[in-house]
């Protein structure tokens, strides 16, 4: 039997009091930045870092409580934390474009804290969350004093056991369960929110939290989610992936003035109809498509996406998002962002055949969120730790295991079946999906496509909603979109809780 005195305690965090002035009045709140132990066979194996916010002057028992995480896999929660939901956020220009250095952190009047308590969770290997060294590793370190400290040893060893679908979900489920117990929040209205791969997590957790952890949710919020990976990639033999990004390409082309249309809603609606009714059947014809049909489809696709007809012809109507991002403004030696195609950057290698630069909407924002979250945690919230905050850990991303060990299915990972089961197990569960129009990586049309194919019972259909906003993957960096989203989500919570 394990001696409790030998078990580690979580790292010391910090709790602090703050006030935020909003249009609705002052919010006085408690911020608690802490580590929570994760157990396996009653032995601690990891510690998850999290930041919790709750209002100081209102009873917490009947307040909604929302657990928030990002995706990647390998992304910390800093993007939602410091981009839209937390009481402070990174400053962007009003259209979501990046300001020059230094980083600015400003008060966030659109913080969701006005209608829900918040807990931002960093999965293992992201943020300050780490796997704990086991007894054998500790013994080796003590035996060889010249070797790295236990802290260094823990960080240098792979944490791959946590980097796969089921273990990740179980770790999050255990965290939520333990948090509800230690903070006496089992009777609170409970919500989960996740962005990108975090939306994949949310869809699966709507089922798993009920079946494996006894947790009933009031609401699930999927932000720029990927729910079925098969829809993101097209090949010569799988066709749907070539269609799902076309409406986002069309929206981006209109934004940059490369199409004749002026009405965004009408133009994207035409692109959606074309993708469903024309492009997929055409691609399915393969080599049997008559030449006249080919040229007609290519012409339509060029008119919708703003690309030169020669580019569409060269790729036979199969437009990869990287091709679109490189070619739309190539005459200006300018590339588009993949995560937000409204964002442009100079092409560092305009004379090369293929684009060899980085994505301005992923690597470009790292300096902002890294500076903001480190300042917020270490200065504003008073967290003292020598750990590096891993904003986006590519080691996690590269090592991620998508195939659950007990699942014999082959192919791409998916989560829509779990969402359907979750909504059926709990017919009161409300689901809100939000996307940015200019996101090429997780296009809004994927979610639209999937929700049409879910064949929900008529009584459940009103429980699921889909909204689109101007902007990209992180559409909330646009002031207008963040403010509109805040209003929609405030109404969503009020409707669900009431």
Describe the 3D structure.
The chain has helices at 78-85, 135-143, 150-156, 165-182, 197-213, 241-244, 246-255, 264-285, 291-305, 309-314, 321-327, 363-380, 394-399, 416-425, 444-453, 479-497; strands at residues 14-22, 25-40, 43-55, 65-69, 88-90, 105-107, 117-121, 130-131, 190-195, 219-223, 334-336, 344-346, 430-436, 464-469. The model is unreliable at 141-147 (pLDDT under 50). It is 37% helix and 17% strand. By secondary structure, it is an alpha/beta fold. Helix 1 crosses helix 12, helix 5 (197-213) packs across helix 14 and helix 8 (264-285) packs antiparallel against helix 9. The N and C termini lie far apart (48 Å). Strands 1, 2, 3, 4, 7, 8, 9, 10, 13 and 14 form a ten-stranded mixed sheet that branches. The chain is globular and about 70 Å long. It has two domains: 4-229 and 366-497, Alpha/Beta hydrolase fold, catalytic domain (Rossmann fold, 3-Layer(aba) Sandwich), CATH 3.40.50; 234-346, no CATH class. It is built from 16 helices and 14 strands. Strand 2 (25-40) and strand 3 form a beta hairpin.
